[in-house]
Design goal:
about 240 residues; 10 helices
Length: about 240
C-alpha cells in the first residue's frame, strides 16, 4: 500500500511541478482507495502546502495580486464550510464526490469549454468559495479555479503563478482548520513524513520536464489519467470493487 501511495504522490508532484496544478486531483482519487478520507485529506493538505510554497518561490515573477485577490479571500472563506462537510459526510459519499469532481472537471477542460464572464472580479467570489470548500472537504481545491483561469485564457506564466498563490493561501488556512477540527493526528503526520520524499522527487522531475516537454500535450495525457482515476474513486464509493 505504501508503494502505491508513494507512486501516486510522486506522479502528482511531477504534474504540479510541470503545470502549477494537479497535485490533489491526481493524488486524492488514488489515495482514497488506499486510506480513509479523514486521513487522506489532511495528509494531502500537508504535502500540498510544502509543495506549493516551493513552487511559489520559483514562479513568483508571474504573480498578479490585483487580479487574484478576490479569489483568494473567497477561497479562504470557503475553508470552514469544507471542514464541516468533511466531518459530517461519510466515507462513501466523499469518494463519490471526489470522483465526480475529477471526471467533470477533466472532461470540461479536455472539451475546451468556455463561458462568457462580464465581470471577472465578481465571478471570482463563487469560484474561490467553491475551491476553498472543496479543498477542505476533499483535498481537491483546483477544479473550479483551474476551469476559471482557463476560461479567462490567462497567460501561461500568470496562470501558473496565480494558481499556486491561491493553492498556497487556501491550503495553509485549510491546514489550520483541520488542526482545529482535530483531524491532524499522529497517523496523519507519520504518513505525511513518509511521503515527503515523493513530493521532492516529483517536483524536481516536473520542473525539469517543464523545459523539455510540450505542456499542452502533457496536460491532455494527464487529464485522460484523471478521468480514469476519478471513475475508480466513484466505483470505490459505490462499492463496485
Amino acid at each position: 500500500m505504501f508503494i502505491l501511495a508513494f507512486i501516486a504522490v510522486l506522479l502528482a508532484s511531477l504534474v504540479a511541478g510541470l503545470t502549477g496544478f494537479g497535485f490533489a486531483i491526481v493524488a486524492v482519487p488514488i489515495l482514497m482507495i488506499l486510506m480513509p478520507p479523514k486521513v487522506v485529506v489532511p495528509v494531502v493538505q500537508l504535502l500540498s502546502a510544502v509543495l506549493q510554497i516551493a513552487i511559489l518561490v520559483e514562479a513568483r515573477k508571474g504573480l498578479d495580486l490585483k487580479r487574484v485577490w478576490p479569489l483568494l479571500l473567497a477561497g479562504i472563506a470557503g475553508v470552514p464550510l469544507g471542514t464541516y462537510l468533511l466531518l459530517i459526510l461519510d466515507t462513501q459519499s466523499l469518494r463519490i464526490l471526489v470522483g465526480v469532481v475529477v471526471v467533470v472537471s477533466a472532461l470540461a477542460m479536455l472539451a475546451g469549454w468556455r463561458w462568457s464572464v462580464r465581470n471577472e472580479r465578481v465571478a471570482s467570489v463563487p469560484v474561490g468559495l467553491a475551491g476553498g470548500a472543496l479543498g477542505a472537504s476533499t483535498g481537491i481545491p483546483g477544479p473550479p479555479v483551474i476551469l476559471f483561469f482557463t476560461n479567462q485564457q490567462m497567460a501561461k506564466q500568470g496562470f501558473r503563478a496565480n494558481l499556486v498563490l491561491y493553492f498556497t493561501c487556501v491550503g495553509l488556512v485549510a491546514v489550520l482548520s483541520l488542526q482545529v477540527g482535530g483531524l491532524i493526528t499522529n497517523e496523519v503526520l507519520v504518513r505525511w513524513a513518509g511521503l515527503l520524499p515523493a513530493v521532492a522527487l516529483g517536483m524536481l522531475a516536473g520542473v525539469w520536464l517543464a523545459r523539455r516537454v510540450d505542456q499542452a500535450r502533457f496536460q491532455q495525457i494527464t487529464l485522460g489519467v484523471l478521468i480514469l482515476t476519478g471513475i475508480a474513486a466513484i466505483a470505490s464509493g459505490l462499492n463496485l470493487f
